[in-house]
Design a protein that fits this description.
Blueprint (H helix, E strand, L loop, with lengths): L11 E5 L6 E11 L4 E7 L5 E6 L3 E10 L2 E10 L3 E3 L3 E4 L2 E9 L3 E2 L1 E3 L5 E6 L4 E8 L4 E8 L4 E3 L3 E4 L2 E10 L3 E2 L1 E3 L3 E8 L7 E2 L6
Parallel strand pairs: 5-12, 13-20, 16-21
Antiparallel strand pairs: 1-2, 2-3, 3-4, 5-6, 7-11, 8-9, 9-10, 9-12, 13-14, 15-19, 16-17, 17-18, 17-20
């Protein structure tokens, strides 16, 4: 459950939206509290869905590590202790979509209740993805980096151009293994070989770092 954002008169909390299916920021429209229960009417700020909940809620401060281009930022947010998070979930903090890459309690685990979580490790999905490409000509390996949208698709069937050079993908290393076709956010590195210029190609020059 996130803290307040924006106008100080507004209460913004993070819940799993029934319509979105992701943990997103919600604005509290109406709040009714008793000694044991809290009843909230909330609006999802991503999709606009308005819904009500009634439950006993205890909050916990959770440390979140956000990775962006190899650099990390630490934030502390409040979340319901009964909420279950798992690796691969997307949470939203201050308008930034973050994919959970690791969860640490007493040990690192795939899923865990917030009450048992010490640290959540995440990577930002709201910034372009930096993809490293290693191009080997049989004698030397040249490395280039491109900054592409998170959902950009790389495919070994295509010829790519970077600057004056052309290459063909040999293998894509992903978070789960290797592939011949993958979206950028799942890619760890691309391995390629140079090829002769071809009239039909995908130009990556504008994304070159």
């Amino acid at each position: 459950m996130d803290g307040k954002m924006g106008d100080e008169s507004e209460e913004i909390l993070s819940f799993q939206c029934p319509l979105c299916g992701d943990i997103t920021p919600h604005r509290v429209i109406k709040r009714q509290e008793s000694k044991r229960h809290i009843k909230l009417k909330v609006k999802c700020l991503d999709c606009g869905y308005i819904w009500e909940m009634e439950r006993t809620i205890k909050l916990k401060d959770v440390k979140v590590i956000i990775s962006r281009y190899g650099k990390s930022e630490k934030k502390v947010i409040q979340m319901p202790i009964e909420e279950v998070l798992k690796v691969g979930d997307v949470i939203n903090i201050e308008g930034e979509d973050l994919e959970i890459t690791s969860i640490e309690g007493k040990r690192r685990i795939h899923s865990l209740k917030v009450g048992d979580i010490g640290t959540i490790w995440t990577k930002s999905l709201s910034i372009p993805k930096k993809v490293g490409i290693s191009i080997n000509d049989g004698r030397k390996t040249y490395s280039v980096n491109v900054l592409v949208p998170q959902d950009y698709v790389f495919d070994s069937r295509y010829i790519y151009r970077v600057g004056e050079g052309f290459f063909k993908i040999k293998m894509i290393k992903t978070e789960k293994g290797t592939s011949k076709r993958e979206i950028a956010r799942n890619i760890k590195r691309i391995y390629a070989q140079p090829t002769k210029p071809f009239k039909n190609y995908v130009d990556l020059t504008e994304y070159l770092l």
